[in-house]
Amino acid sequence: MKRVLFAMALFAIPMSLPTSASAQGRFDAAICAGLNIGQIDGDGAGRYNHPGLRAGVATSFALGSNAESPWRMVVEVAFAQKGSVVNTGYDHRNITLNYVELPLMMSYNFLNNRARLAIGIAPAVLAGASVNDDGVENQPLADTYRRFDLLPLIASVRYRFADHLCLETRFENSMLSISNRQGTGTYRIFRDNKGTFSRLLSFGLAWQF
């Protein structure tokens, strides 16, 4: 957990630098928190049944010279818990993967800047993995998860319903395998890209300033 907090603080420092420009509307910032519901494709279970937490900080800036442009670049750093729960009757397994993410998204503001659509990628570093089989820690399996998840695709929708408070939902889907183990017929993009892939729904609140 100390490594997670250190990494988030390291990324948060440069994100706080443009505050002098925020009064001009070119930059904004936000603090986000919410709940993740995840699954892992290729682990034998097919439901969004793994709860987790999400928390982070973000900034966005206008693209081009127009500070009021609806097109913005969004940069975040966040702690995100992913994983899955496998319960097949003979296999009871809980997989928890703790990541530090750096989402990079292109966004479009509408409804007088109250709503925002964004798409991009969310490369992540694995800060810790835990695999529990029927109450017993399975460290060899936990060690098979890769240190980096370099190409999760991400899409988000945010709506600001008060001066600073926003509701947000997002979807993430890994395009590269998150484990060194061979998957069972699950692949992304092309058939040789087999393995296990994280999928995630997230719901939360953001305080934008």
Quick structural gist:
With 209 residues, the chain is mainly β.
What's the helix and strand layout?
Elements: H1 2-15, H2 19-22, E1 27-41, E2 50-62, E3 71-87, E4 92-101, E5 104-110, E6 115-121, E7 124-133, E8 136-137, H3 139-142, E9 148-149, E10 152-160, E11 165-174, E12 197-208
Antiparallel strand pairs: 1-2, 1-12, 2-3, 3-4, 3-5, 4-7, 5-6, 6-10, 7-8, 7-9, 10-11, 11-12
Could you walk me through the main structural features you see in this protein, from its secondary elements to its overall organization?
By secondary structure, the protein is mainly β. The chain has helices spanning 2-15, 19-22, 139-142; strands at residues 27-41, 50-62, 71-87, 92-101, 104-110, 115-121, 124-133, 136-137, 148-149, 152-160, 165-174, 197-208. The chain has an 8-stranded antiparallel barrel with strand order 1-2-3-5-6-10-11-12. The longest helix has 14 residues, at 2-15. It is elongated, with a radius of gyration of 18 Å. Mean pLDDT is 87; it is low at 9-24.
